[in-house]
From TrEMBL:
Name of one Pfam family that matches: YjdM
Protein name: PhnA protein
Annotated SUPFAM superfamilies: Prokaryotic SH3-related domain
Chain ranges of the PhnA protein N-terminal proteobacterial domain: 5-45
InterPro entries, alphabetized: PhnaA_N_proteobac, YjdM_C
Organism: Rhodobacter ferrooxidans
Length: 175
């Protein structure tokens, strides 16, 4: 069970969806903890449309909640989630945290050694055959709003020709 201060701040409900069951504190470094239900902690199957709750949670004045919402929206591929994340009005401190170049202590660097951050735009420096998608991502293609692979500094994720793909950092440069 979460600590009393966190329960009081959250009003005894999940800070994403407002559920009152199966609550637990989730650490959101460096901002602190957020109180989330089992579904919002990804410990239970989310019903259809569940993540739309993030649109309301994005307006929280609590920095840890803002950061948690921003990060979760970055994992969702739906258009509404991308638009909601892009439209978030983050405080300067939360924006700094959100743009941190390190995910899980791993630094991602492009082909020129420039640090990459989640949300950056990169450009492909060579043609890449995309396995399983039956197309070639051409050199010079811009890949906006990348996501960093938390456990592999050599990989990022991005959307090319409508497909979400994994790209090796050695084949991109930061724009």
């Amino acid at each position: 069970m979460a600590n009393d201060d966190l329960m009081t701040r959250a009003g005894g409900v999940c800070e994403f969806c407002g559920a009152a069951e199966a609550l637990a504190a989730v650490d959101m470094p460096p901002a602190g903890e957020v109180l989330l239900c089992a579904i919002c902690r990804d410990e239970a199957e989310a019903p259809a449309g569940h993540w739309r709750c993030l649109e309301g949670a994005a307006w929280s004045g609590e920095p840890a909640v803002q950061l948690a919402v921003w990060r979760k929206l970055g994992t969702l591929e739906e258009t509404w989630a991308i638009e909601a994340r892009d439209g978030m009005d983050l405080s300067p401190q939360v924006r700094d945290w959100a743009e941190a170049v390190s995910v899980g202590g791993i630094e991602h660097r492009d082909s020129n050694g420039v640090l990459l951050a989640a949300g950056d735009t990169v450009v492909l420096i060579k043609d890449l055959v995309v396995k399983g998608a039956n197309f070639t991502a051409k050199r010079g293609t811009s890949v906006p709003r990348i996501a960093l692979v938390a456990d592999n500094a050599a990989q990022i994720e991005g959307r090319v020709e409508g497909q979400r793909i994994v790209i090796l950092t050695e084949f991109v440069k930061k724009r």
